[in-house]
């Protein structure tokens, strides 16, 4: 992608995007800043910032190429909440939070959000509560406005309460932020709650790098507070076990399938890495490779496998029998994937394609 922008701002945004990439926050990758350009008449042209295309990502308006339901809007908002929390955790103030400045990728039954525009951003050692609150208010106002525009353009069901969606964004942000940072107190006999807090954060997709644990002088009350949290718990575990580098909710779904495979094969007592290797070579790879190559590129492989699992379950339920994966693949390719656009470079609305999924 190429964006014309002032020279100073271009270099600043380039460095910010590089920093976010190093910190592992979902964002586009900057490639270059080009200045000194001139047009055919010798007139000076604006500096441009060049970023790498994010494969399988979509601007939000592509997803609204058909009239969408409120639950799809909520999935986009949930993805944006996770992104905003991750940015704030590393000390990044966005300054222009909006759907327009975000790209979305399918992530199992949800979406993952990626920052596209860091022009108004700033990276700090730590954000104040006031900075976070202001960023959140910008997000609320911008998103309400964007959704109102979609309703006016008949791209969003008019029954969707756009103001309520903005309020929900704030509420869900605060819930996730508090889950990651709130101090928790309990009796010294309830130390099992330390492990429960860590497990809860893992379920939310975060690893705990540092947990501060203090005990009152009387030894009766214990206080715990996460100090260092890092997103990507499930994706890191799947990468370690299988070498598959996928998004967080895709990883969660694949790990669940791996656990089911392990239980069905009665291999709970075996080394997890060995079982994961067999699942990869005997289950995941054969299923994905049985999809015709020209169609396999339309979605990420992990997304295809997730959708195959869903399709197999739906068909099995309808026919009241367990259908084999080979049969599910044929049905999925014929009835679902054949009607989907290639999302590797989907930059504009796709008409009758099923953008909602």
Describe this structure in words.
The chain is α+β, with helices and mostly antiparallel strands. It folds into 3 domains: 2-180, Transferase(Phosphotransferase), domain 1; 184-229, no CATH class; 290-357, no CATH class. Helices cover 49% and strands 16% of the residues. The protein has 12 helices and 11 strands. The chain has helices at residues 7-22, 60-63, 70-89, 129-152, 162-181, 192-203, 233-242, 248-264, 272-289, 293-296, 301-319, 325-335, and strands at residues 2-5, 30-34, 47-51, 57-59, 92-93, 102-107, 110-115, 122-123, 184-187, 206-215, 221-231. The strands form 4 sheets. Strands 1-3-2 form a 3-stranded antiparallel β-sheet, with helices on one face. Strands 4-6-7 form a 3-stranded antiparallel β-sheet. It is globular and about 70 Å long.
- Second-tier CATH architecture of the largest domain: Orthogonal Bundle
Strand content: 15-25%
Unreliable sequence segments: 350-357
CATH domain topology of the largest domain: Transferase(Phosphotransferase), domain 1
């Amino acid at each position: 992608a190429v964006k014309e922008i002032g020279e100073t701002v271009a270099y600043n945004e380039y460095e910010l995007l590089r920093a976010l990439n190093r910190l592992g926050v979902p964002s586009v990758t900057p490639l270059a800043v080009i200045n000194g350009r001139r047009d055919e008449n010798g007139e000076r042209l604006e500096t441009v910032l060049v970023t790498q295309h994010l494969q399988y990502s979509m601007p939000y308006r592509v997803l609204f190429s058909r009239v969408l339901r409120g639950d799809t809007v909520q999935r986009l908002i949930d993805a944006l909440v996770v992104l905003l929390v991750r940015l704030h955790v590393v000390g990044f103030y966005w300054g222009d939070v909006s759907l327009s400045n975000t790209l979305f990728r399918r992530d199992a039954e949800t979406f993952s959000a990626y920052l596209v525009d860091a022009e108004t951003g700033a990276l700090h050692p730590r954000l104040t509560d006031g900075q976070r609150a202001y960023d959140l208010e910008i997000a609320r106002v911008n998103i309400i406005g964007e959704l109102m525009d979609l309703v006016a353009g008949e791209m969003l069901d008019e029954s969707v309460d756009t103001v309520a969606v903005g309020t929900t964004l704030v509420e869900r942000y605060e819930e996730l932020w508090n889950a990651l940072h709130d101090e928790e107190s309990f009796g010294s006999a309830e130390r099992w709650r330390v492990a429960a807090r860590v497990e809860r954060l893992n379920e939310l997709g975060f690893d705990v790098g540092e947990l501060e644990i203090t005990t009152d002088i009387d030894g009766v009350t214990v206080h715990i507070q996460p100090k260092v949290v890092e997103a990507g718990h499930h994706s890191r575990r799947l990468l370690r076990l299988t070498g598959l580098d996928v998004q967080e909710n895709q990883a969660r779904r694949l790990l669940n399938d791996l656990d089911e495979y392990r239980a069905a094969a009665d291999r709970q007592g075996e080394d997890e890495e060995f079982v994961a290797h067999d699942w990869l070579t005997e289950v995941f790879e054969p299923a994905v490779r049985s999809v015709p190559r020209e169609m396999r590129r339309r979605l990420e492989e992990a997304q295809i496998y997730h959708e195959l699992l869903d399709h197999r379950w739906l068909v099995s339920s309808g026919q009241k029998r367990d259908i084999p994966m080979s049969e599910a693949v044929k049905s999925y390719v014929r009835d679902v994937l054949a009607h989907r656009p290639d999302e590797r470079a989907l930059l504009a609305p796709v008409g009758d394609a099923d953008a909602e999924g």
